[in-house]
Write a structure and sequence with these properties.
This protein has 851 residues and is α/β, with parallel strands linked by helices. Helix content is 48%, strand content 14%. It contains 36 helices and 23 strands. Helix 25 links the parallel strand 18 (580-585) and strand 19 (621-626). Helix 8 (157-171) crosses helix 36, helix 25 crosses helix 32 and helix 25 (594-610) crosses helix 34. The radius of gyration is 28 Å and the shape is globular.
């Protein structure tokens, strides 16, 4: 008679439990009717919800309602809503597995998710039931919503885009697994001390994370370091194997990604690094407690922090460890999930891995390594499979943002992968030389291996060589990608390049973020726009309806009142009534030109001080900034300091009579964006033409009725074309004009000397007016503008000022402004991430919805 250990799959009490997560189902056929029935969700009723909520509060939180804290109540509520999703998630997985459906594997180092509760309630249509049920328990739903801590698992547009895309794929019933890293500390929490940015740890897990559930039995071992060796296999073939020095475990944490009211729940799988041998009892017993857990500390560093500061060799190595760690886990995970006996030659029919920028590109040699070294494929067959399994999205035009890893670091950390990259490059260059005989300079330009300033692997080139398709993220960006960033590759493979303009999810950024506008749209054209955003075109005639304009204006006013209350409670910031709300929120980078907006503010202020402008002629305006600077990016941090110092002086000066205000709430994130974007009147999209890949903030603002002042850059071009020149405040040089000025030789100081308004603004900063008389405190920012100004803020200053004068003239006519705002909403339906996903499906992935 087998003992209990044997019955549970253990040959002895000391043997470890099985980690074969491909074994599905019980050990013998179940007989209980509940065990054979489909997985059920709690009853969709107020009573059913209350019962489930109290059960979670009592059993999972271990408290009675009468003794529960707000955090207890929030965690119980989140678990309750998760229980409603769980049956759908399990059914989605079953249907996808049974159908053997082709899946999108979205590989991204960032997912800027935002709070999960509101989105889950919306997707499950539980808002009313939850609100009524909690009210009967004496609990306020908005209070529990505000208890949720947003996971800061992204830095900006890249991570938010990934979150929008997986939301859309679930809503469109397309199988998708998002793969990324479960950073213990996400993007830092920003605070200001004397106007300077100070980074604090983002402890988003401190109060519990109810939306995730770990699967340690599905952990993946990831190897690093060591050497390689060649050997002869049983069939007499020379093969290579990797002999690594050390390894870590990747533990998956699943998040459910619900589609909107369609029953589908896809998966976001985030990997956490743990030591394979976390604790050495012998060392601990000897008294060396720190050494006993050294392996654990070392391993957990890999998933400790989003984007570790990489100005040091150690930081660079940790970033590469992170990138390889999550793609190695993800590829292994997907392959392990396939049925026993699955022929990997059919892998391209099961998966398309989308490389979200260059961070996951090391997945290409990793899949080759698996096929060659572990599965025994020959090179040509392995490469044919690999190049059908990847597509690459490039998100930048900045050369420094196209990652290059030194061959020294790659060879030390991933020696086998470097060998594979060398062979990929050798075969690729043979193809180039055949296509362009005698053009050795071209071959050197196109080589995956760069030789200067140090020998390195150009990851964007590797991605382009391996991918079935390469896409940019706006029409202008995709054209510049072909013409300027990867022109040789575009000439070699013109059909490989395509465009997919970015989009944003209307569920989070209109339906959830802007309830008053959503109600107005529902009452006017029905509810179908939430999943078919082009239906917003039906609003166009209502721009001429005075009653609709009045209702639209009231929705905007309500959003402003909501934002005012939030900023007062959150940051102690008072927003004045009746002001044009002028908003610039985005990652702090010189190419985004927060400095240009700052010069505009200083110029307005200086005009009043000098008497050039009568204070009563100043359009009442509040400028709101939101931005984080990378911890090692000194110029960006100095710019934040200057903005805050200017704000302090402007806000306190009685000469302005309260007609100009500047606000910079710290720690801008998705949660704040959901309140700030709907309240904005004016959207600042002022990057130098040809620098921004797309932008998605520009889309969110337009969809919520803000007018844009912007350059012809990124998706601004398409926004302007769709909403119309009359309803978009265009300024600045075009991309060809920027290129021509750069070729001619740009001398920013000449613009300073020739434009009196610009000179007065800069001189006011240099005078120490914003730095307690210290004339040199902001030399770094000012002299960068005067002597370098890589992104030509001074060249575009005069045009920008003229555009702002057009803004003020339009704002002085409330009816005209509201009409333009309505038309921005009505004509921006193209910018749904649902449309983006349809374009990816048709042009790149060729997957099918599971109807």
């Amino acid at each position: 008679m087998p003992d209990l250990a044997q019955k549970n799959g253990l040959s002895s009490p000391d043997e470890s439990p099985t980690t074969d997560h491909r074994v599905y189902g019980p050990s013998k056929p179940p007989t209980h009717p509940l065990a054979t029935a489909p997985v059920g969700a709690p009853p969709f009723s107020v009573d059913g919800f209350v019962k489930e909520f109290l059960h979670e509060l009592n059993t999972n939180q271990g408290v009675a309602l009468s003794n529960s804290s707000i955090n207890d109540q929030y965690l119980a509520l989140a678990s309750t809503v998760k229980n409603y999703l769980m049956a759908r998630w399990l059914e989605t997985r079953r249907k996808t597995r049974d159908a053997k459906a082709k899946t999108v594997g979205y590989l991204s180092a960032e997912y800027l998710l935002g709070r999960q509760l509101g989105n889950a309630l919306l997707a499950t249509d539980l808002n009313d039931i939850a609100s009524k049920g909690l009210d009967l328990c004496g609990i306020d739903l908005p209070t529990l919503r505000s208890q949720e801590v947003e996971p800061g698992l992204g830095n900006g547009g890249l991570g938010r885009l990934a979150a929008c895309f997986i939301d859309s794929l679930a809503t469109m019933d397309v199988p998708c697994i998002g793969y990324g890293i479960r950073y213990e500390y996400g993007i830092f929490r920003q605070t200001f001390v004397d106007g300077r940015q100070v980074e604090q740890p983002d402890t988003w897990l401190a109060l519990g994370s109810p939306w995730e559930f770990p699967h340690p039995e599905a952990s993946v071992q990831v190897n690093f370091g060591g050497t390689t060796e060649t050997y002869t296999d049983a069939e007499g073939r020379e093969r290579t194997r990797w002999l690594p020095d050390w390894n870590v475990l990747g533990v998956p944490y699943n998040y459910m990604v619900p589609g909107y009211l369609n029953g589908r729940v896809n998966t976001l799988r985030l990997w956490s690094a743990q030591a394979t041998k976390a604790f050495d009892l012998g060392i601990f017993n000897s008294g060396d407690y720190a050494q006993a857990v050294r392996a654990q500390t070392f391993a957990e560093n890999i998933s400790k922090v989003l984007y570790p500061e990489d100005s040091t060799p150690q930081g660079k190595e940790l970033r590469l460890q992170q990138q390889y760690f999550f793609v190695a886990c993800s590829l292994r995970d997907f392959i392990n999930e396939q049925e026993e006996g699955f022929d990997l030659r059919q892998l391209p029919e099961r998966i398309i891995f989308q490389l979200n920028d260059t961070h996951p590109v090391i997945a290409v040699p990793e899949l080759m390594r698996i096929l060659l070294d572990e599965k025994g494929f020959e090179w040509d067959e392995a490469w044919e499979i690999t190049r059908q399994c990847f597509a690459y999205t490039c998100h930048t035009l900045l050369p420094e943002a196209l990652e290059v890893w030194s061959t020294e670091l790659l060879g030390r950390l991933l020696p086998r992968h470097l060998e594979i990259i060398y062979q990929i490059n050798e075969e690729f260059l043979a193809e180039v030389r055949e296509a362009f005989p005698g053009d050795e300079l071209r071959a050197r330009r196109m080589s995956i291996i760069s030789e200067f300033p140090e020998r390195g692997v150009r990851m964007a080139f590797l991605a382009t060589v391996a991918a079935t398709k390469v896409n940019g993220v706006a029409a202008l960006h995709s054209q510049l990608l072909r013409d300027k960033v990867l022109p040789d590759f575009s000439e070699l493979w013109p059909d490989k390049f395509t465009n997919v303009t970015n989009g944003v999810t209307p569920r989070r950024f209109v339906r959830m973020a802007n309830p008053k506008l959503s109600e107005l749209i529902n009452d006017t054209i029905g509810t179908g726009w939430v999943t078919d955003l082009e239906r917003l075109k039906e609003l166009e005639p209502y721009a001429e309806d005075p009653d609709f304009r009045a209702a639209f204006s009231e929705a905007k006013a309500w959003n402003k009142r909501r934002l005012t209350s939030l900023l007062k409670a959150r940051d102690g910031i008072e927003l004045p009534d009746g002001h044009l709300l002028d908003v610039m929120v985005k990652r702090l980078h010189e190419y985004k030109r927060q400095s240009l907006k700052l010069l505009h503010i200083v110029s307005l202020y200086e005009g009043v001080l000098s008497g050039r402008t009568k204070v009563e002629d100043l359009t009442p305006r509040t400028v709101v900034f939101g931005a984080k600077a990378a911890p090692g990016y000194k110029m960006a941090k100095d710019t934040i300091h200057l903005i805050n110092k200017v704000a302090a002086v402007v806000n306190a000066d009685p000469a302005l009579e309260g007609r100009l205000k500047v606000a910079f709430p710290a720690n801008y994130n998705v949660t704040l964006a959901e309140k700030l974007v709907p309240a904005a009147d004016l959207s600042e999209q002022i990057s130098l033409a040809g620098m921004e890949a797309s932008g998605t903030g520009n889309m969110k603002f337009a969809l919520n009725g803000a007018l844009t002042v912007g350059t012809d850059d990124g998706a601004n071009v398409e926004i302007r074309e769709l909403v119309g020149d009359k309803h978009f405040f265009l300024f600045g040089m075009s991309e060809p004009e920027v290129a021509a000025l750069g070729a001619k030789g740009y001398t920013p100081a000449s613009y300073y000397e020739e434009n009196a308004q610009l000179k007065s603004a800069i001189d006011l900063i240099l005078s120490g007016h914003f730095s307690e008389g210290d004339k040199h405190q902001f030399d770094s920012v000012v002299y960068n503008l005067l002597h370098s100004d890589r992104f030509m803020a001074l060249a575009d200053f005069a045009s920008y000022i003229e555009a702002q004068e057009r803004v003020e003239a339009r704002y002085a006519d409330p009816d005209a402004w509201t009409r333009s705002a309505i038309l921005n909403v009505a004509r921006s339906g193209f910018f749904s991430s649902d449309r983006s996903m349809r374009d990816y499906i048709q042009r790149i992935w060729h997957t099918q919805p599971m109807l």
